[in-house]
């Protein structure tokens, strides 16, 4: 089911309702790295977004490249040698400490949630579906 549509499909119901009698109202928006506003935030905090496997956009993890168990420094430029790995498929998360950018003192992946409120009506709101992107993005 795609929540971007305005109609919910079903196999029918026991109360005689037609399948078009229900309208879906999306209450949230996924925080995906390829969303323009999320990508802009990631890039503003020093990150990158790259298309990973199976066409899924991912936040790039820029990590120090270990060689023989040691972090290697490029002696001519006095910089750490790093590699970029497309890693996280979401643009916001709690606890992803790997995304800390020491150059600006911020996390590339934001932990700031979107918060909204909706008043439910007994006459109009018959049910609520609570699900993660693991249900919708399969």
Question: Can you lay out the helices and strands and say which pair or pack?
Answer:
Blueprint: H1 36-44, E1 49-51, E2 57-64, E3 66-67, E4 70-71, E5 73-74, E6 79-80, E7 82-88, E8 100-101, E9 106-107, H2 133-136
Antiparallel strand pairs: 1-2, 2-7, 3-4, 5-6, 8-9
Word description of this protein:
The chain is elongated, with a radius of gyration of 21 Å. Strand 5 (73-74) and strand 6 form a beta hairpin. The chain starts with 35 loop residues before the first helix and ends with a helix. It is mainly β and 138 residues long. The chain is 9% helix and 22% strand. It contains two helices and nine strands, in the order H-E-E-E-E-E-E-E-E-E-H. The model is unreliable at 1-12 (pLDDT under 50).
Helix segment tally:
2
Uncertain runs are: 1-12
Radius of gyration: 21 Å
How many angstroms separate the termini? 11 Å
What is the chain-wise order of helices and strands?
HEEEEEEEEEH
Mean pLDDT rating: 77
Largest sheet: 3 strands, antiparallel
Helix content percent band: under 10%
Number of strands: 9
Q: Name the structural class.
A: mainly beta
Form type: elongated
Q: If strands are numbered along the chain, what order do they take across the biggest sheet? A: 1-2-7
Strand content: 15-25%
């Amino acid at each position: 089911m795609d929540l971007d549509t305005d109609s919910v499909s079903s196999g029918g119901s026991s109360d005689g309702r037609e399948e078009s009698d229900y309208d879906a109202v999306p209450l949230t928006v996924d925080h995906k790295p390829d969303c323009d506003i999320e990508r802009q935030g990631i890039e503003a905090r020093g990150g990158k977004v790259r298309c990973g496997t199976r066409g899924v956009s991912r936040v790039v993890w820029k990590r120090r490249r270990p060689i023989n168990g040691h972090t290697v420094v490029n002696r001519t430029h006095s910089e750490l040698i790093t590699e970029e790995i497309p890693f996280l498929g979401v643009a916001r998360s709690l606890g992803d400490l790997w995304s800390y950018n020491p150059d600006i003192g911020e996390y590339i992946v934001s932990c700031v949630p979107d918060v909204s409120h909706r008043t439910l009506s007994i006459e109009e709101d018959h049910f609520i579906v609570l699900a993660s992107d693991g249900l919708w993005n399969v």
